[in-house]
Amino acid sequence: MAPWAWTWDLCIALLNGRFARIDGRGSGCFRIAQGSTNLFTDQSEDFSVEIFQRSPLPASCVAPEELKQQSSLHADLLWLDIPAISVLAFELKRCLSRKAADPVMEEEDRNRRMRYETDERRIKGTVVLMKKKNLLNFEERLDRRIFRPPDRKVSLQLISAVNGDTDAKELRGKLGKPAQLEGWNSANTPLMSEYFTFSVTFDWDEEIGVPGAFLINNYDYDEFYLKTLTLEAVPGHGRLHFICNSWTYLPSRTPPALQYYRGEELVNLRGTGTGELEESDRVYDYDLYNDLGNPDNANHLRPILGGSTEFPYPRRGRTGRPLSRKDPRCETRLPFSESLKIYVPRDERFSHFKMSDFAAYALQSIFQFLIPEFEVLFDRTPSELDTFEDLLELFEGGIPIPDNNLLESIREKFPLEMIKELLRSDGERPFKFPLPQVIKEDKSAWADEEFAREMLAGVNPVVICGLKEFPPTSKLDPKLYGNQNSSMTKEHIKDHLDGLTVDEAMENNRLFILDHHEALMPYLRQINTTSTRTYATRTLLFLKRDGTLTPLAIELSFPHDKGDQLGAVSRVQTPAEKGAEGTIWDLAKAYVAVNDSGYHQLVCHWLHTHAVTEPFIIATNRQLSVLHPVYKLLHPHFRDTMNINALGRQTLINAGGILERTVFPGKFAMEISAVMYRDWVFPEQALPADLVKRGMAVEDSKSPHGIRLLIEAYPYAVDGLKIWSAIRTWVEDYCSFYYKNDEVIQEDHELQSWWEEVKNKGHPDKKHESWWPKMQTREELVETCTIIIWITSALHEAVNVGQYPYRGYPLTRPAMSRRLIPKHGTPEYDELEKDPEKAYLKTITVQIQSILGISLIEILSKHSSDEVVLGQRDTSEWTTDMEPLKAFGRFGKRLKAIEQEITEMNKEERYKNRIGPVRMLYTLLQPSTELGLTGKGIPNSVSI
Ligand SMILES: *[C@@H]1O[C@H](CO)[C@@H](O)[C@H](O)[C@H]1NC(C)=O
Ligand SMILES: *[C@@H]1O[C@H](CO)[C@@H](O)[C@H](O)[C@H]1NC(C)=O
Ligand SMILES: CC(=O)N[C@H]1CO[C@H](CO)[C@@H](O)[C@@H]1O
């Protein structure tokens, strides 16, 4: 292993790019950076300087030998996290000094230089490729040298940026003669690298002039990832360095010679709309969610989502698998064991070692191997969870697994080091869950204050509304559902309003509601046919003088036994501490939590971030060239989303999948999310608009973000608005550079086609809505892009990362319930009086599998280090335009300042909702913009 080559590779590992057209069936057009840094010259001294600037050496460096040992297993991780980079820098320096002393290298350098000087009609270049490999195939990962280099089966052709092709009908840049990749020296390619460096020699003549792009064709069956091409000494120009995707042009400003290729590439990406798509395809197309159910299995029949008024839905990426024979409207599913092979456009599966694959893989393994085993285990020992202590024991002591064979088979089935962490070989309780943060410090997770606080600063802070009428009324059709108005009365609450009357409290914006009644009610009867028993709930809250909320009453409603038209049967519980009433109050809160966690997972998380984003991604790739400024703006925010969504259709949201098993509506879960999509309004996804709509804020031009919060200490909104505004400023600066006025927007045909397609093909069930921005002004473009970035970054983060810390403790935040409140005079009621813990546990469902699921994700995400967070990009050379780069720098600085502001607020006791009685700070919207990949912060995209 030549140390020199090793360092070379490490340099390259720090950059990022995009897949080249790799299927050998066509050609792709690439963009190119001029005058970039010297990262890829033979003088890698430049590089070492670069690295040292970015990341100062830590005081203690890992010894190189040690590094190498670790590397063989965790090479990818090492590349990506900060301490490792520092170590690499250290290593690099060491190697450089060796290189200088290496006479063979020097000789080669000299020869190369001579060739350049004597042979002017040739251009020497260096191509850097990455081989494709299977993430989960450990053997392959270890022995990368078995890669057969593509050698002469790959050709490259330069495309002139200055001269047209006289033989072509339309204007397109002159193509040079194909050149082949030259030899690949295996000794030069280190063990732990996926990157390969090749030489290439182009014939050059005046007609090519300065190349502006190149065409690459792969006639080999192996695919590879193209990183860079560097041309030495282009006559009349000098050095040219092509990093995939760093030039930006509006369609009308593209050099004429390249326009043809720009259009052709988009045609390629749109595909033909027919046939099954294969792994190497890069085609982006739309389809219905007709692949969740299985027509051949009576238990797995599910409606098609999308394409009907009953079940409207955003579109998903098309895979083109064969249709079902039994029901040709449905697409057949991939076998479970092949889940990871589900089609997504090749460029969407870019990063080979990343969180989403990991998590999907882990979840799949859990559900395939573990859950069935656990189910057997817990059926055998039904008395296992009779008391709250038993549950705590699970967290503190691990899950008891009596059967050693099971343990062994689990070990075999989890090839990944990280999952093995869960499976200790010492002692008989191997599954130890980290204690969820919410009960770590203090057991007051039960407290009413914490119950209420989490509506403002928990994992689902996006549902609570201001109360506008009392008692709350229903919009459900009385012909179908009878009287669904609330049965709460002033009597229930009047003594707890700080001396105000109900009307005064409402006028002063002191009353709030978490309303989970309206949408759930029509489904309760159906849900009642599953093993779930739950209520529709309305929770009334009062804003106290100290800025915290307290629950006043919870209304639990259930359909009338004799039919829907007779209206709801409701009961109203008010806070109680002792005896049966105290237990019933805790149960009432539990039913609210059940409803809230279902709504959170299905609507706030899946539908409002994952599902609605996918059509934007597809339309962006089909209609905006990679050269387009809006493509460039949005692209980092789309990373991994199609991949995780596709894996989700395979194992999470499918019939019988994880979602159905872990949220209370069971098999109706996805249907309900479709019904909820009817209410989705794109412009209301903007944070300020959302807050105003929910009655949590009022418009106020004097306030910093144009609105005034009615609960001043609403941490999600306070932090969110800062981030929202930072994104908006950045987007505005960026768009203003390319679009000097509204006409440029109107005349940008790619932009206009993009927007048409978002509406008509991506969200076609909503295409007639009048609220879609018209995309005629820069203001509309700025607002639209801000919303997209907000959804994919901060909004997703706010409703995603807190799941385990806030919801990992199923006693206070159950996700399922299996019976209603027992009636007076029944044996069940007696039990509730005598043994409240047991009665409580019989009502809520403690789901070992869901704890296991989220805790695994929790553990995995601690290890993930390849997220790129808001305010950062995976390469600093993402554009060559200086103004946007500067604006981006300002955005990063602003986020850093916000980080600081949040930290400061979190220190102040007076912001009670930031810490709550459980002493757990609200940090979900901390942007964490320090340089480096700390695994913290707001990721750019929905990637898990
Ligand atoms: C529910 O309340 C609204 C507003 O007070 C009222 O108009 C409506 O008639 C009530 N519905 C029923 C079915 O009583
Ligand atoms: C809910 O299910 C239970 C048990 O099957 C049944 O007795 C009850 O009538 C159902 N309630 C409604 C409203 O359908
Ligand atoms: C499925 C579900 O989550 N049920 C309801 C919970 O509460 C929200 C808020 O009103 C409803 O929209 C959901 O339908």
Automatic annotation (TrEMBL):
It comes from the Eukaryota. The keyword Iron applies. Pathway: Lipid metabolism; oxylipin biosynthesis. Gene3D superfamilies: 3.10.450.60, Lipoxygenase-1, Domain 2, Lipoxygenase-1, Domain 3, Lipoxygenase-1, Domain 5, PLAT/LH2 domain. Its EC number is 1.13.11.-. GO terms for molecular function: metal ion binding; oxidoreductase activity, acting on single donors with incorporation of molecular oxygen, incorporation of two atoms of oxygen. InterPro entries: LipOase, LipOase_C, LipOase_C_sf, LipOase_CS, LipOase_Fe_BS, LipOase_plant, Lipoxygenase_dom_3, PLAT/LH2_dom. GO terms for biological process: fatty acid biosynthetic process; lipid oxidation; oxylipin biosynthetic process. Residues 1-24 form the signal peptide. Keywords: Dioxygenase, Fatty acid biosynthesis, Fatty acid metabolism, Iron, Lipid biosynthesis, Lipid metabolism, Metal-binding, Oxidoreductase, Oxylipin biosynthesis, Signal. Residues 248-944 form the Lipoxygenase domain. Its cofactor is Fe cation. It holds the Pfam family PLAT. The keyword Transcription does not apply. Belongs to the lipoxygenase family. This is Lipoxygenase. It comes from Escallonia rubra.
